[in-house]
Queue: 4 jobs
Job 1
Amino acid sequence: MSERDVLLERMDRPDGARWCVRLGKRTLMFDDEGAARAFAAQLHMRLNGEKLSLVPGTDKEPGS
C-alpha cells in the first residue's frame, strides 16, 4: 500500500457502524456509507490525476 492509496473501512461500534476513509495518516469518519464511498471515489480520482466530468466526451475540441 502506498501513501496515495485511499482506503474505505467499516468500523462497528456499540452505537452503530461508522465508515472510515483513510489516506496515509489522515482519516475521516462518516456515519453514511454512501457519503463515505462518494468521498473516497472523488479523492481517489483527484489523487490519480484523472479529470472528473459530468459530461462524457468533454476532452475533445469542439467541432472535431
Note: Helices lie at 33-47.
Job 2
Amino acid sequence: MAAVEKQYPVLKETTCASLLQRLQKIWDEVGENDEERDKMLLQLEQECLDVYKRKVDQAAKSRAQLLQELADAKIELCNLLSSLGEKSGVGIPDKSSGSIKEQLAAIAPALEHLLKQREERIKEFLDVQSQIDKICGEILGTSEKLGSPKIDESDLSLKKLDGFQSQLQELQKEKRDRLHKVLEFVSNIHDLCAVLGVDFFSTITEVHPTLNDSMGMQSKSISNNTLSRLAKTVLALIGDKKQRLQKLQDLATHLVDLWNLMETPQEDRILFDHVTCNISASVDEVTVPGALALDLIEQAEVEVKRLDQLKASKMKEISFKKQAELDEIFACAHIEIDSEAARTKILELIETGNIEPSELFSEMDNQIVKAKAEALSRKEILDKVEKWTSACEEESWLEDYSRDDNRYNASRGAHLNLKRAEKARVLVSKISSLVDSLVAKTRAWEEEHDMKFTYDGVPLLAMLDEYSMLRHEREEDKRRLRDQKKFHEQQNTEQESIFGSKPSPSPGRALGNKKVVGLRSTNGANGTPRRMSSLNNNGSKSVNKDGRRDSARPIAPVNYVAISKEDSRSHISGTEPIPSSP
C-alpha cells in the first residue's frame, strides 16, 4: 500500500471516506432525499465491485498468461534438450520451487543457453551439409543448381552431426581420389598428345574447361561425366596411337623392303631413322614427342610412294621369282598348276596397272604361305608314295634280276646284286601293307580337307586302286603260268619217255613284258616323278583326273608301267606250243 501511495501521491489527499463526506455535504446542500442517496450509494458500490472484478479478471488473465509462458518455456526447454540430444530434465526447476515469475526467471537462463547452443549447432549442421551437398554436386556435375541445404531442427544431436561429418570425410576422400584420377588422365592425355603431335589444350578443353590450367580455374571438374569423357579420350588417343604406330611400322617395313630391293645406300636410309627406329617397338615404348605425328607419317608415305614408282621396273622380275617359288612348291608337292597362265596374268596386271605392287606381292606371298601349308599337309602321304614307288622299282628290278640266268655267275658285282635282291624281297613283301596304309591316310586326308588328293593331277586313290587291280591280275597270271609250266613239264616228261629229250621254251619268260611298278619309272625334266600310266596302247586302262577309268585315253601317268592281260596271253600263245592232250 505504501508503494502504491508513493506511485500515486494523490491518493494520500483523496480517500473514499473524504470523498463520501464531500458527497454528503453536497447532498445536504442540494437537499437530496434518502432514497436518491441510497440509490447513488448502491451505484457507487456496484461500480466499485465492477472495478475490483475487472482488476481480478485482469490479474487472473495475467497469471494464466504467465503459467502458459512457463509451460511453453518448459516445453521449449524439453524440445531443445531433445533436439540437441541432451539429458532430459536438466535445468528445469521444480513447480513448487517459487512463484511463477521466479520459475520463469529460473528457466530463462537455461532456455537462453540452449537457444544459443541450438543456433551454433544449426550453423555446424549447415556448414557440414553445405560441404556435403557441394561435393555431391561436384561428383554429379550439378553443383551450380544446388541451393542451401535444409536442416532438420528436430534432430540436432552430436551423434547425427558426427554421422554427417563422417559422410563428409568419406566424400572428401572420394574427391581426392577423383582429383587424382583426373590429374592422372590429364597427364596421360598430355603425353599422348605430345607423341601424336595433337594440341593438348584444345583436346582437354573439349572434355571440360576447368581442366585447362591456362584458363586460371583452380577447381577442376571431378564429375562422373568428366571422368567418363577423360577415359574415353584416353582410349581414343591410345587407339589413334596404335593405328598410327601400326601404320608407321608398316611403312617402315615397306621402306626397309624397298631399300633392300633397290639397294639404297646407308646415307639415304639415315634420313628416315626417326621412322624405322620404332619398327619393332610396342605402343608403350613410343614416348618421344612427335614420334607419331601426321606429318611424319605423310613424309614416310611420300617416300614409300616414290620408291614404289622406282620399283615398278623390277616388278616383273620379283613377281616371276615368286611364281617360280610357287611352282617349285607345287612341283615338290606333286600338285598340278598352270604356271604359264599364272605368269601371263601377272604380266597383264603389271602392264595394265590394275593392281598395286604391294597388293600383288602380298597376294603372291599369301599363295606361297597357303601352298607351303598344303604341301606340309601332303608331306606324310607323299613320303609314303615315295616309299611305295621305291618299293615298286625294287620289285621291277627284282623281277628282271630273277629272269637273269647269269645272276649266280661269279661276275664282278654279283654279290652286291645278291644283297640288293635280299633287301628288295623284304621291301616287296611290305608293299601290300604300305598300299593299305597309304589308302587309309589318303582317305583321312580327303575327309579332313573335303577334296580329292591328286598326284600330278590324277586322284591318288584311283591310281592305288588300279595298281591293286593290276597287281592282282599279275598274281593271277603268275598262278596260271605256274600251272601251265607244271602242265608243260608233265607233257615234256611223257614225250621224253616216248621220243627222247626235246628242248622246250621257258614259260617263265612269258611274264617278262608285264611289270607293275610305281610312280617314277621315268623322271621328268625337273627331277620330279611323273604320273602312273600303262605303256601299252592296245586297250590299256588309265585313270583320268576325276578318278574314272578311261579306256579311250591310253596315256596315263608315265611312271605306272603295266601290260594288259590280253597282251600277256597273246605273248604266251605266240611263244609256247599248244598243250596237247595226254
Note: The CA atoms of residues 230 and 236 lie 10 Å apart.
Job 3
Amino acid sequence: MNSVHNIAGRVRFVGSGPGDPGLLTKRALDAIAAADLVVYDTNVGHAMLEAAQQHAADSAVFTANDTTSSELVKDLIAAAREGRQVVRLIAGEPYPNTTVESEFSTIGDTEVFCEVIPAVSYASAVSGYAGMPPGTLRTLIEVDDPSRLEPAALAQAVARGTLVLTSDVTFLAGLRDALLTSGMEATTSVAVTGDVTGETQFTTLSTIDTFVEAALGFAGRVVLTLGAGVGERIRLGWWENRPLYGWKVLIPRTKEQAGEMSDLLRSYGAIPCEVPTIAVEPPRTPAQMERAIKGLVDGRYAWIVFTSANAVKAIWEKFAEHGLDARAFGGIKIACVGNATADKVRSFGIEPELLPDTQQSGEGLLDAFPPHDAVLDPVGRVLLPRADIATEALSAGLQERGWEVDDVTAYRTVRASPPPAEIRDAIKSGGFDAVLFTSSSTVRNLVGIAGKPHARTVVSVIGPHTAETATEFGLRVDAQPDHANVPSLVEALAGYAVDLRKRMSEAPVKQRRGAKVQGPTALRFRS
C-alpha cells in the first residue's frame, strides 16, 4: 500500500449493520455527517437509508451503487482526489465481503486515504434481539458455499457451545445437508431468524431436518443458531415480544406531523403508515395576518398563544416575507398548547414562557394562563393565530381572564387528496391493525378521502371529542388515554394490545383459533 495519502479527500467504507438504524455506530454517523458524497448499496434497507439521509448535511449527495465494482472504484478515487469526503455505505458488514476487500485494496494502492468502519454483526444482533446468549464459546460462520463446510467442524462447534451461521436463504437446503452429514441428530434444535433487527424480524424454532420448510417466507440473509442459548429465546427475547410487534398502524397525519408518534410506535414494535388527511393552505385574505405582524412589531401584544406547529410556521413565514427574525418577539411572551408546538418555537431559537402544567390542550393552557392585571400588564392584548376551523373556547377563556384577544386566521385546513388505491383498500379491508385519531377532523377527513376503517381495526382516539366523532361515524372506540397527548395515545394502544394478548391467552382454545393477538403473520416477512 502506498504510504503517501491525500487526506483532504478520503473514502470511508461504512457498514450499515443488520437493519435497525439505531445500531449505527457513532463513528459511522460521524462519517455520514461529514460526507459530501454517499454511495450506498442498492440492498441497504429503506429505514437505514432514510436515517443516513437525515443525519447527513443538507449538501450531501446520495447515489445508489448501480455500476460495476471497477467503475465504482474509479468514481470513488476521482471524488476523493477532488477533495470530497466519500462514504461507501455497505449493506450489512464490510467484512467478510470480497468486493469490499478488492475495492479497499485498489484504492489503498493510490494516494487516496481510505478506512473501514465496522458494523454490529448479524450474529451479535440476533443473540441480543432474539434473546439467545452465545455462552462462553461461539463459532461464527459466514456461508457463501455450503459445499465447502466441514461437517465434523460443525458438530464440534455445537458440542463446545454455540454455532451461528449467517447465510442467504438460497443456501438453506445445502446447510441442512451439511448439518445432517455432520452426524448431529436430525431433531437438534435450530433457531432461524429473518429480517434481523427489522420491523418484521421473526425467529422460528425448528430442527435440523425441518428448518428449511419452517423458513418459508423468509427473504435475504438469515441467521441460524444451534447449541447453547437457543433454549433461552422465550425467556430473554424482547424485540419480537414488544406490545405492538407486527402491528401495522395507520396515522392520519403527514410524515412531518407524525414524527414523534411514529417513533413511539416503532419503539413498541409497530409499523407506522402516515396518511395525510389535512392539507394546510394560506388564509383566503392576508389582511388579518398583515395587521397581526405589524402589531407584533409595534408592541401591541403582551402574549402570543400558539395552538399548533402550523400556526408557528405561518407566523414565521410572514416574518420572512417582511425581513423579520426572532428579535421581533422581543418583549412578547409566548404560550404554547403543548410540547410539539413548543418544540417548533424552539426550532427558531426561542424558548416559550408558558406551557400547560398537565393536560396539553386548550383547556390545560387556560388553567395555567395568568389573568390580566392592569398594573402588572400595561399591554392587555393577546394574539391568537389559529386554523380557520378552530373552536372559540380558548379565545373565550382568555377574554374571561380579562385579556383582549385578536383571534386571527393564520392558515386554512382543507381535506387532503385521497391516498393511493392500495392504502384505501387496506383501510376498508382490515389491512391495518390499528388507527390512531388525534382530532375529530382526522376522523371526518379519513372517512371522507379513504373510507371507514374495517371493523377488525383497533381504534384509538386522543380524547372525548374525538371519541364522539368516531362513534358518530360508526366506529368502535377501543382505547383512549387519560391525558390528551401523543405519548399517552400511543401508550393507550400498547396497553390495549397487552390486555388483548392476555385475554386471548386465557381464553379457551376454541375461542383462540383464528383470533389475532399480534399483527398479521404476513407482515413478519419481507418479500
Note: Confidence is low (pLDDT under 50) at residues 1-6, 512-527.
Job 4
Amino acid sequence: MPKKQSTAAREGEKYTAALRREAENPAAPTTYSYVPVDDAGDDHVWARIVEDCPRCPCHAARVCADGLWHQASRPTHAGGTPYSGLCPCEEAAKVPEPRRLTIAFKGVIRTLEAEYHRHGVMRGRLRVLGHPFRGEPDDGSAPNRCGMVLTRSKVMRTARDDRGDTWLVRTRASVGGRPAAITGWWSDEAPED
C-alpha cells in the first residue's frame, strides 16, 4: 500500500475512534478541527478531535495555543447560533508581551527591552525596542539607528530573554525604509576612522 494511503487509513481510524468516543460520552467538551494536508490532495482533509479552549467559549485549545485564529472558521455556540463576541484569547494576544533580552552582538553583551508578538504579521518574533543598533543601508546612504527582529532558535544561543527562550540574531534590518546591514551598536559619538 502506498505511503499516502496508509497514512490516510491511519487518520481515518483515528477519526472513527474519535466519533466512537463522542457517541459513548456526548457531554465531553470536544470539537472537531479539520486540517488540510498538502500531500493528501486538494479535496481531502483529515479530522482530528481536540479539546475546547478553557479560557474562551469560542475556539478549540489548539487554535488559541498556536495562535491560529485566522485559519479557524467563525465559531458558533452549542445551539448553532454564531458567536458574535470577540475571542478573549485573540484580543489578549494582540497586545505584545514585554520581555528583557540579553544579547551578545559584536563582542558586546547588553540587556535590552523587547516585545514578543503573539498575533499578526510579527507572530512568534521578538522585536528589540529603542533602535540600539547601527544600520548601514545597502544603497550607500548615511548610517542610522535601527532595531532588530529576532526569531526563535534552539541551536544559536546568541540571545536569551527573561523567559529562558533563545533567539537568533539577525544582521539585516531597515533604515528609513531601505534595506540595511546591522554593523554594530549605535553610538552618539563621532565614528573613528
Note: Residues 3-24 form the longest helix (22 residues).
